[in-house]
Design goal:
0% strand, disordered C terminus, mainly alpha
Length: 274
């Protein structure tokens, strides 16, 4: 390993650490410096790793055009290297960009191309994620039944792999699809399962995600106290992690509390007359 390779590896390690903590500006700076080293060394595999990290940081920070450019360069390098598994991953990342932009047909095309390659490499973990991605596309384009089929296949793979976080996600996504179909009791069962697994994992964000879907179910069923109880927990998590929906969910909770207060006022005369 050359000095430049070693520096690039260390900068990527530091960038990954910043990324995991949500310090995106610091992560980007590390990756950009690593890229300078990789361009000078000409190490294609190092370039693939660094450009992939840059694509990821741009994607999560909303810089889709930059992310697209980084992923496209990664794709060309992976084709030169003959890295089929890597190509599949990059195609999936490109699909994610298009999904984030609401370009569902383009997202599906990328995901299906990725699935063809990843199936050949027998990477079941990647297949499970792609099936969930295809489920999202199906759900967002109005094909709820196909979405559920994709999520159920993803769930089966996640179970076989022992990926409990993935299992929790799959149950939540099935639940969200049932909400679209107005199958609220089935959605509640799915999301309670997701919540239970997430709590065992001590994963507050996944627990909050399941609770959020439960809020919608209970609201639709008129069970406002249950909805408010879950939404209080969601707002608490939003505040703890400074999530972008804090203000929106706080307002929603206030509305729920007002509705509950109104219902209580209506119910008092009934109790008195009983």
């Amino acid at each position: 390993m050359t000095l430049r390779n070693g520096l690039s590896e260390e900068l990527n390690r530091q960038g990954n650490e910043h990324f995991s903590r949500g310090y995106y500006t610091e992560a980007y700076t590390c990756y950009a410096r690593a890229l300078e080293c990789d361009r000078l060394s000409g190490d294609r595999r190092a370039l693939v790793a660094t450009l992939g990290n840059l694509g990821n940081i741009c994607a999560v920070s909303g810089r889709r055009d930059s992310a697209q450019a980084h992923y496209q360069e990664v794709l060309e390098l992976q084709k030169i290297l003959g890295d089929e598994k890597g190509i599949g991953t990059t195609l999936a990342n490109l699909g994610n960009l298009r999904a984030d932009a609401g370009e569902w047909d383009r997202a599906r095309a990328y995901y299906l191309e990725a699935m063809d390659l990843i199936t050949k490499t027998h990477d079941e973990a990647a297949q499970a994620v792609l099936l969930s991605d295809l489920g999202l596309v199906a759900r967002e384009t109005g094909d709820s039944e196909e979405a559920i089929r994709c999520y159920e296949r993803s769930l089966a793979l996640m179970r076989r792999l022992g990926n409990l976080a993935g299992v929790a996600d799959a149950w939540r996504m099935i639940g969200r699809t049932y909400v679209i179909q107005r199958r609220y009791h089935e959605a509640i069962a799915c999301c309670q399962t997701s919540q239970s697994i997430a709590e065992r994992l001590r994963d507050e964000l996944r627990t909050g995600g399941a609770r959020y879907v439960l809020v919608q179910c209970y609201e639709e069923l008129g069970q406002l106290q249950e909805a408010a109880d879950h939404l209080e927990q969601v707002v608490s998590m939003d505040r703890k992690y400074r999530l972008p929906k804090l203000e929106e969910n706080t307002q929603r909770l206030n509305v729920l509390r007002l509705r509950l207060a109104g219902l209580d006022q209506v119910q008092v005369p009934r109790e008195m007359s009983a």
